[in-house]
Specification:
The structure holds two protein chains of two kinds. Chain A is built from eight helices and six strands; from the N terminus they run αβααββααβαββαα. Chain A is 49% helix and 10% strand. By secondary structure, chain A is of the alpha+beta class. The longest helix of chain A is centred in the C-terminal third of the chain and has 44 residues, at 146-189. In chain A, helix 3 crosses helix 4 (102-111). Chain A has a domain at 16-129. Chain B is mostly helical. Chain B is built from 24 helices and three strands. Chain B has a two-stranded antiparallel ribbon with strand order 2-3. In chain B, helix 16 runs antiparallel to helix 17 (351-383). The radius of gyration of chain B is 28 Å and the shape is elongated. Chain B starts with 22 loop residues before the first helix and ends in a 24-residue tail after the last helix. Residues 1-14, 48-52 and 554-586 of chain B have low confidence and may be disordered. Classes of the chains: A alpha+beta, B mainly alpha. Chain A: This is Collectrin, amino acid transport regulator. Chain A: InterPro entries: Collectrin (IPR042944), Collectrin_dom (IPR031588). Chain A: One of its GO terms (molecular function) is transporter activator activity.
């Protein structure tokens, strides 16, 4: 009895070894970069993590095809290195001798990539299935591009500035014209309320510097300078 | 006192000539005009690898046209800097979303954004491509800003200059402080300041230095003359000239420091990236645990693995990473700003804020130089009474801006950036040298230094000392002549070529060297010669006019003599001295 058991076990082990080896048919290499992704919070890759991986693969196969009855024991891992990298195959649920075609496994993984990544707290770049290229998600684009909005704001500010300056200029001109016509009217009416000193209106006098009175300017030549 | 002897009251003149609000505004304007984009991107590049009126009016027009297009690009980057993540940080995906866009993948995301998303550049200068609508929008906005600031001449530019001239210094200081804290900054600075004495033997170095300082001061544009003309006659222009020249040079040196810190940071990051990529390949190939090979022990590991598994190492095709090589990747001009600096900005934390600050600074730098250019166009039109006085200033500046905008639309074509390079190399260089040369000769030998010194004494209160006399008479004309001849000689030696961005080229992402077709060369020559040709033409015209006049009157005003060359636009025949042409910088 014991011998039969041992024999079956060794047969199974050999079968497994044949099914799962590097570059075997329908086998995939997986590479994880845990330290790069998590830094100080990196977890160690041990048997428990491997168990989780097998569970996720079984989950992915089941989710992909409702007929599938993949068990955790159907997922075979081998050649685990320190990198962390390893190969795995998915065997048929009924007989543990043939492997599920690679295309199905690939499709299943693609469908559930997000779930698999988040189970390990990794991303497409740090959890790599070497033969399966990830479909890159397009960047989030808002309906109106941001630059158009900023441009609109800038343009509105500029136009407001221009309109303000032009209107201010027109108003200033109107005020100046009005003032000059008022002054002309006043002078015509000769109602001069402007005080006059020797015929010069006081406002025109630059009170800081005096005006040279022509009568006395000539006297400079008569007197010797100090 | 009888009324007969009274002095008539002074009547304030209608539309009196505008004046600067204060001296500081004038100095800032001159500095802002002189300190432009060239201080940021041309001087540091040169440091790294080697250690004149219709004439100058024309040059001002040509330069205004293309200079504002550079501002358009700056504005485009500015409004794109509000996006998170920055649009030039990642490549866009291709159609079936399996990978990145091919052109972007083969070059870099930053290159792709510049050449494809901004310029949409054509593979050569003869293919014009289409008008890029986003650039047209930005161009319109830029010309609107220029109009807003120059709407009433220096009344408005005088206010605007407070911001546009001072803000860049603030931002440069912020970049300086941040740049010095970046890793690898010290490598960049060491690279900048380590003198390589061998390069001093190369005459090209001296020529580049001379041309740089000449163009940097923005001489011979007529803009400085226009600005100075708004000063009061009794102005110490000697002090102003020295101040502007010193500030301009100091700014170039000051700008080099943050530029080189950032370049050093970028080189270091590139070097680290190169190392990291190699390390990952090795780790993946040999299935070694992560972080077993670090940058520090990389060389040790490589030599060990090379001895034990040489075929595997050779099969990996590792790139050799050399920090010096990264530092040597020098670029000047638009490449420095839009490619290298933007790449460095993505690597900094808080990249959005840095990008926004950086592009606002560039915009202010360019805008303050644009003020000078526009004044160089605007003021002669007003002064020479070509335009009737009834047209208001606002309308005239609006018309000028509109005409320039329409002409500048050709720079928004696919081949626009090639044309801007042409304008920059031909319209913005040789004519300036020629005009400046004629200005100096005109003042020194036609107007005569003695009279000039007397004018300066009247304005500043002291006679210009021996230094000025020697430089005005001999050194400046000689230097200008040498620079001009050397420049022309170097241009003739090699056939004019340009580097085209062609995705279908085998050596892509390297640029393809192409030669200008003959019709383009003809345009280049025209751009260079046309402004220069006006100087002797107008001189001849004035001479003939004067000879005709001398047949009628016997007394010739000496001032008319001096107004032979075109740049002396501001001689007022009524007054005994030309007010403004004296304030020329060396």
């Amino acid at each position: 009895m014991l011998r039969v058991l041992l024999l079956t076990l060794s047969v199974v082990a050999i079968a497994h070894a044949e099914l799962c080896k590097p570059d075997a048919q329908n086998a995939f290499k997986v590479r994880l970069s845990i330290k790069t992704a998590l830094g100080d919070n990196a977890y160690a890759w041990d048997a428990n993590e491997e168990y989780l991986f097998k569970a996720m693969m079984a989950f992915a196969m089941r989710r992909y095809s409702s007929k599938s009855m993949t068990q955790i024991s159907n997922i075979l891992l081998c050649n685990v290195t320190d990198r962390v990298s390893f190969w795995f195959v998915v065997t048929d649920s009924s007989e543990n001798v043939t492997t599920v075609p690679g295309s199905e496994v690939e499709a299943a993984i693609r469908m559930n990539r997000n779930r698999i990544n988040s189970a390990f707290l990794l991303s497409d770049k740090t959890l790599q299935f070497l033969k399966i290229t990830p479909t890159l998600s397009p960047p989030v684009e808002p309906s109106t591009p941001v630059w158009l909005i900023v441009f609109g704001v800038v343009l509105c500010l500029i136009l407001a500035g221009i309109v303000f300056l032009v209107v201010a200029g027109i108003r200033q001109r109107k005020k100046k014209n009005k003032e000059s016509t008022e002054r002309e009217n006043l002078e015509e009416k000769c109602e001069v309320t402007i005080t006059v000193e020797n015929g010069i209106p006081c406002e025109a006098l630059d009170l800081k510097a005096g005006h040279i009175n022509g009568v006395f300017a000539a006297d400079n030549e008569r007197f010797t300078s100090l | 006192m009888s009324k007969d002897l009274s002095v008539p009251p002074e009547i304030p003149k209608e539309d009196s000539r505008p004046k600067w609000d204060n001296k500081f505004q004038y100095i800032l304007s001159c500095i802002g005009f002189a300190v432009g984009l060239g201080n940021l991107w041309r001087f540091p590049y040169l440091c790294q690898i080697h250690g004149g009126g219709v004439g100058s009016w024309m040059v001002s027009v040509l330069v205004s046209l293309y200079y504002n297009t550079v501002l358009t690009w700056v504005m485009w980057y500015f409004i794109n800097s509000f996006q998170e993540p920055l649009p030039w940080s990642a490549c866009p995906l291709n159609e079936n979303r399996t990978g990145f866009n091919e052109e972007c993948y083969r070059s870099t995301a930053v290159n792709y954004f510049w050449y494809r998303k901004t310029l949409n550049i054509t593979p050569n200068v003869t293919e014009s491509g289409t008008l890029q609508w986003w650039l047209i929008l930005c161009l319109a906005a830029c010309w609107a800003i220029v109009y807003l600031c120059t709407i009433r001449g220096i009344e408005t530019t005088g206010k605007a200059i407070y911001v546009t001239a001072i803000f860049p210094y603030l931002v440069l200081t912020i970049f300086l402080i941040h740049g010095l804290t970046l890793p690898g900054a010290t490598d960049g600075l060491a690279y900048l300041f380590t003198p390589n004495l061998n390069t001093l033997k190369n005459p090209r170095v001296w020529l580049d230095a001379a041309t740089q300082i000449f163009f940097s001061l923005s001489l011979a544009f007529g803009g400085l003359i226009a600005f100075s003309s708004y000063n009061s006659p009794k102005n110490d222009c000697e002090k102003d000239a020295v101040t502007v020249a010193i500030v301009n040079s100091m700014t170039s040196l000051y700008a080099s420091i943050p530029v080189f810190s950032v370049l050093g940071f970028k080189a270091t990051t590139g070097y680290w990236d190169c190392l990291d990529r190699n390390i990952i390949s090795i780790i993946n190939e040999f299935d070694l645990p992560e972080e077993s090979i670090m940058r520090e022990n990389y060389t040790a590991w490589i030599s060990f693995l090379n001895s034990s598994h040489p075929e595997k190492i050779a099969g990996l095709k590792l790139k050799s990473c050399d920090l010096q090589e990264f530092l040597d990747q020098s670029v000047s001009g638009t490449g420095l700003v839009f490619i290298i600096f933007t790449q460095a900005i993505i690597l900094m934390p808080g990249s959005r804020a840095w990008a926004i600050l950086f592009f606002i600074m560039l915009f202010c730098l360019g805008l303050s130089s644009m003020f000078g250019n526009i004044e160089g166009v605007f003021t002669p039109l007003l002064e020479l009474r070509i335009i009737s006085k009834t047209i208001r200033k606002e309308l005239l500046s609006g018309i000028i801006c509109l005409i320039c905008f329409i002409i500048a639309l050709c720079f928004t074509l696919g081949s626009g950036s090639y044309w801007i390079d042409i304008f920059d190399s031909y319209a913005g260089t040789v004519p300036l040298l020629v005009i400046a040369f004629f200005e100096v000769i005109g003042v020194a030998y036609v107007y005569k230094i003695k009279r000039f010194s007397k004018d300066v004494k009247w304005m500043t209160g002291r006679k210009p000392n021996l230094y000025w006399q020697i430089t005005w008479r001999f050194i400046s004309p000689l230097l200008l002549l040498i620079v001009f001849l050397a420049f022309v000689a170097l241009q003739i030696q090699k056939p004019s070529s340009y580097a085209a961005w062609n995705p279908k080229y085998e050596g892509f992402p390297m640029k393809e060297e192409k030669v200008y077709p003959p019709w383009v060369l003809a345009i280049c020559v025209l751009l260079a010669v046309l402004p220069c040709v006006f100087v002797p033409l107008v001189a001849l015209f004035n001479l003939i006019k004067q000879m005709c006049r001398s047949k009628d009157t016997s007394f010739i005003q000496p001032e008319v003599f001096s107004c032979q060359e075109a740049n002396c636009n501001f001689c007022h025949p009524k007054e005994s001295i030309p007010i403004v042409s004296v304030c020329k910088k060396k």
